[in-house]
């Protein structure tokens, strides 16, 4: 409504100015329409300047593959290699993440995604015997390469909620006395495995953002008397009070 008033005032001002020049009506009308269009365009640009920022992001996304942020949604265009890449920070270090869906533009609603992830892993912690769209448990751990002897030394209740994707402790080559940060520690399987490798002289910190997983892992660590294992609530991109040192080994479980 206010915009219409502004445009009407601009039109009256332009018409009044032109009529004093005693030009032919056809020329006056043409000139008036031209000025009204200019005022209207300026008004639209000023009023919707925030929305034009999104248009600029979209053009940039199509040109160089940059994500488009709109509210709490992030639209990720396909890169030239056919995949979807996003850049983030992990404890202050730039990292590229792969997000694939097979489409030409992937939309990630961060709030909705976080809620679904937390709900899924809450059930994994509390109801490990339920059916899920992924494998879980000791059978999976052994097929991935976890030595049975090592699994025998850690809490069985942690293994029942295990939903990992690979065995990497042989690559990490953990040694006694080292400090380990387990990113996405879940119910603690990899943290407990690391604890057997670094021993009581070392330290293991598991980081997760699902309250039920943390509660389960903390209870299991306390019951097993593993004083050198600690579980903290946090996110990978902003690790909770964990500094960097030469003898710290980050693992992602």
Task: Tell me about this structure.
It is a single chain. With 253 residues, the protein is an alpha/beta fold. It folds into three domains: 2-47; 54-114, no CATH class; 134-252, Rossmann fold, CATH 3.40.50. It has helices at residues 2-19, 25-47, 49-64, 110-126, 138-144, 148-151, 156-160, 169-172, 189-198, 211-224, and strands at residues 68-70, 73-77, 85-90, 93-98, 105-109, 179-183, 203-208, 229-233, 248-252. Strands 8-7-6-9 form a four-stranded parallel beta sheet, covered by helices on one side. It has a three-stranded antiparallel beta sheet with strand order 1-2-5. Helix 1 (2-19) runs antiparallel to helix 2 and helix 4 runs parallel beside helix 10. The longest helix has 23 residues, at 25-47.
**Beta strands, count:** 9
Report the total helices. 10
Classified by CATH, the class of the largest domain is Alpha Beta
Order of helices and strands: HHHEEEEEHHHHHEHEHEE
Strand content: 15-25%
Which structural class matches the secondary elements?
A: alpha/beta
Cα distance spanning the termini: 57 Å
- Total individual domains: 3
**Largest beta sheet: strand ordering:** 8-7-6-9
Which segments are poorly predicted (pLDDT under 50) over 5 or more consecutive residues? none
If classified by CATH, what would the architecture of the largest domain be?
Answer: 3-Layer(aba) Sandwich
Helix content: 40-55%
- Bulk shape: rod-shaped
Mean pLDDT comes to 79
Give a short account of the largest sheet: 4 strands, parallel
